[in-house]
C-alpha cells in the first residue's frame, strides 16, 4: 500500500503519531474505572533534575540563530516557540499516543470529551505515517458518505496530509454544522484515489442495536463504549435471556472503543468473579494493575458465543474481545483488530495547556500486548469490496454458521 502512496505524494518526515479522534470517542485514556474522564495531575514547578548529559547550549544557540537569521522571526512569539519545543520534546518519545496541546488545542480537546462539537463522526489514527480511518460511526456523516475503515486520507480539502500535524488535521476535518469537507482517500483494493465530500453535523454517538434472527441467533451490534453502554448492554442481556436461545453474536466491527469500565462490566456477564479482564502494565518498576470481573457470569458452559472484529475494532473493543478469547468464552471471527492498547494520562502543564502521555500498555489476561498487532481472530474472514457491492457479509455468514454448528 505504501508503494501506491508514493506515486501520489512523497512522505517527507515522520508525522506526529497519535490517535486522532474526530469524534474523540475511543481515545482510550485513563478514562476508566470510575467513569472519570481523565486522571489530571498538576505540575506546579519545574523541579526535576536534568541529567548533566543534556547539553542545552545547542537549544539556545538555535534560538538565537533564528532571531538573527530568520527573516520573519518576529512574527512567531517566544511563547509559540516554547510550545513548539515542547511538542518536539514529546515527539522524541516516538510514541503513537503522547501529545502536547497548546491552549487552543487543549480547549478543543476538552470540547471533544464533553461532546460539544460538530464534525463528521469518524475516528482516525496514523499507520505507516499515513492518516488512516479507524472507523466511521454508524449513521454519522462519514458513515453515510461511504467512508470505510482502512481508508487512507491523502488530502483534506486542498491540504495534503504529508507534513501535517495531527492537531492541524483535527482542525481541518472538524467544522460548523452544515459545512462540507472534501477528503481525498485511497482504498486498499483500489489503485486511484477518490474524493468524498462530507457534510459536517452534530454527532450523536450510536451505541447498541439488537436483533433476534429466525434461526435462533441473538445479535448485539455494539458501536461504541459510551458512558451508558454498560446499562444498554444490560438491557440487551435481559432481551437475550428472554429469547430462550443459547446462540449469541456480538458484532464489534468498526467499534473504536471508549470507556474502559464499560468493557470490564460487559466482560463480567461471562466471567466468574475475580477473573482477569485486562492488565495495565506500567513497566518493570511499577506493579501491574489488574481489572477483574465483578462476576455476574449468568451463563453456563452451554452458551454459544461468537464475536465479530475487524480493523475498526479498537481500544475497549479489543479489551472485551481479548478477554473472551483468552478465557475461551467466545470465538472471534473476522479480521485483525486495530491494536490500540495503551493507556494515556492527562497532565495539566499550565492552566491552559495539557499533556496526554502514555503511562501503561494493555495486556490481555494471557499477557499478550494489544498494541503489538491487535487481536487475531480464530477464524480469519475477509470482507471485500465485491462483498460490499453485492451486499454480502461473509464474516456474518461464518459467525452464523459456527453458531448453528456448535461445538467447534
UniProtKB/TrEMBL annotation:
<dbReference type="InterPro" id="IPR029045">
    <property type="entry name" value="ClpP/crotonase-like_dom_sf"/>
</dbReference>
<dbReference type="InterPro" id="IPR004447">
    <property type="entry name" value="Peptidase_S41A"/>
</dbReference>
<dbReference type="GO" id="GO:0008236">
    <property type="term" value="F:serine-type peptidase activity"/>
</dbReference>
<protein>
    <submittedName>
        <fullName>Carboxyl-terminal protease</fullName>
    </submittedName>
</protein>
<dbReference type="GO" id="GO:0004175">
    <property type="term" value="F:endopeptidase activity"/>
</dbReference>
<dbReference type="Pfam" id="PF22694">
    <property type="entry name" value="CtpB_N-like"/>
</dbReference>
<keyword id="KW-1133">Transmembrane helix</keyword>
<dbReference type="Pfam" id="PF17820">
    <property type="entry name" value="PDZ_6"/>
</dbReference>
<keyword id="KW-0645">Protease</keyword>
<dbReference type="GO" id="GO:0006508">
    <property type="term" value="P:proteolysis"/>
</dbReference>
<feature type="transmembrane region" description="Helical">
    <location>
        <begin position="12"/>
        <end position="33"/>
    </location>
</feature>
<dbReference type="InterPro" id="IPR005151">
    <property type="entry name" value="Tail-specific_protease"/>
</dbReference>
<dbReference type="GO" id="GO:0007165">
    <property type="term" value="P:signal transduction"/>
</dbReference>
<keyword id="KW-0378">Hydrolase</keyword>
<dbReference type="Pfam" id="PF03572">
    <property type="entry name" value="Peptidase_S41"/>
</dbReference>
<dbReference type="GO" id="GO:0030288">
    <property type="term" value="C:outer membrane-bounded periplasmic space"/>
</dbReference>
<keyword id="KW-0472">Membrane</keyword>
<dbReference type="InterPro" id="IPR055210">
    <property type="entry name" value="CtpA/B_N"/>
</dbReference>
<comment type="similarity">
    <text>Belongs to the peptidase S41A family.</text>
</comment>
<keyword id="KW-0812">Transmembrane</keyword>
<dbReference type="InterPro" id="IPR001478">
    <property type="entry name" value="PDZ"/>
</dbReference>
<dbReference type="InterPro" id="IPR036034">
    <property type="entry name" value="PDZ_sf"/>
</dbReference>
<feature type="domain" description="PDZ">
    <location>
        <begin position="106"/>
        <end position="174"/>
    </location>
</feature>
<dbReference type="InterPro" id="IPR041489">
    <property type="entry name" value="PDZ_6"/>
</dbReference>
<keyword id="KW-0720">Serine protease</keyword>
Amino acid at each position: 500500500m505504501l508503494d501506491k502512496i508514493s506515486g501520489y505524494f512523497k512522505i517527507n518526515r515522520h508525522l506526529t503519531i497519535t490517535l486522532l479522534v474526530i469524534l474523540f470517542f475511543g481515545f482510550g485514556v485513563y478514562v476508566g474505572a470510575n467513569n472519570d474522564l481523565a486522571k489530571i495531575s498538576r505540575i506546579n514547578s519545574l523541579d526535576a533534575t536534568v541529567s548533566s548529559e543534556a547539553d542545552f547550549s545547542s537549544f539556545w544557540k538555535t534560538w538565537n540563530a533564528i532571531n538573527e537569521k530568520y527573516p520573519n522571526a518576529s512574527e512567531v512569539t517566544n511563547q509559540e516557540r516554547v510550545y513548539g519545543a515542547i511538542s518536539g520534546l514529546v515527539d522524541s518519545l516516538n510514541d503513537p499516543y503522547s501529545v502536547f496541546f497548546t491552549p487552543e488545542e487543549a480547549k478543543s480537546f476538552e470540547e471533544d470529551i464533553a461532546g460539544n462539537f460538530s464534525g463528521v463522526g469518524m475516528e482516525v489514527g496514523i499507520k505507516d505515517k499515513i492518516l488512516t480511518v479507524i472507523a466511521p460511526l454508524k449513521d454519522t456523516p462519514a458513515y453515510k458518505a461511504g467512508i470505510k475503515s482502512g481508508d487512507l486520507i491523502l488530502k483534506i480539502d486542498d491540504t495534503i496530509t504529508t507534513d501535517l500535524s495531527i492537531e492541524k488535521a483535527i482542525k481541518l476535518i472538524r467544522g460548523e454544522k452544515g459545512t462540507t469537507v472534501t477528503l481525498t482517500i485511497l482504498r486498499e483494493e483500489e489503485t486511484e484515489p477518490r474524493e468524498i465530500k462530507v457534510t459536517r453535523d452534530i454527532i450523536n454517538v450510536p451505541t447498541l442495536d439488537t436483533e433476534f434472527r429466525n434461526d435462533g441467533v441473538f445479535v448485539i451490534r455494539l458501536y461504541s463504549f459510551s458512558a451508558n453502554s454498560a446499562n444498554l448492554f444490560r438491557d440487551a442481556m435481559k432481551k437475550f435471556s428472554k429469547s430462550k436461545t443459547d446462540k449469541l453474536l456480538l458484532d464489534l466491527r468498526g467499534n473504536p472503543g471508549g470507556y474502559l469500565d464499560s468493557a470490564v462490566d460487559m466482560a463480567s456477564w461471562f466471567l466468574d468473579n475475580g477473573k482477569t479482564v485486562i492488565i495495565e502494565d506500567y513497566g518493570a518498576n511499577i506493579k501491574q494493575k489488574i481489572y477483574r470481573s465483578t462476576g455476574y457470569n449468568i451463563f453456563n458452559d452451554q452458551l454459544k458465543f461468537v464475536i465479530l472484529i475487524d480493523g475498526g475494532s479498537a481500544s475497549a473493543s479489543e479489551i472485551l474481545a481479548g478477554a473472551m478469547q483468552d478465557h475461551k468464552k467466545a470465538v472471534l471471527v473476522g479480521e485483525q483488530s486495530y491494536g490500540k492498547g495503551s493507556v494515556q494520562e492527562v497532565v495539566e502543564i499550565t492552566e491552559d495547556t495539557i499533556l496526554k502521555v502514555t503511562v501503561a500498555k494493555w495486556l490481555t489476561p494471557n499477557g499478550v500486548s494489544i498494541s503489538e498487532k491487535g487481536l487475531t481472530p480464530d477464524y480469519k474472514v475477509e470482507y471485500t469490496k465485491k462483498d460490499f457491492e453485492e451486499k454480502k457479509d461473509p464474516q456474518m455468514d461464518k459467525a452464523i454458521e459456527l453458531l448453528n454448528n456448535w461445538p467447534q
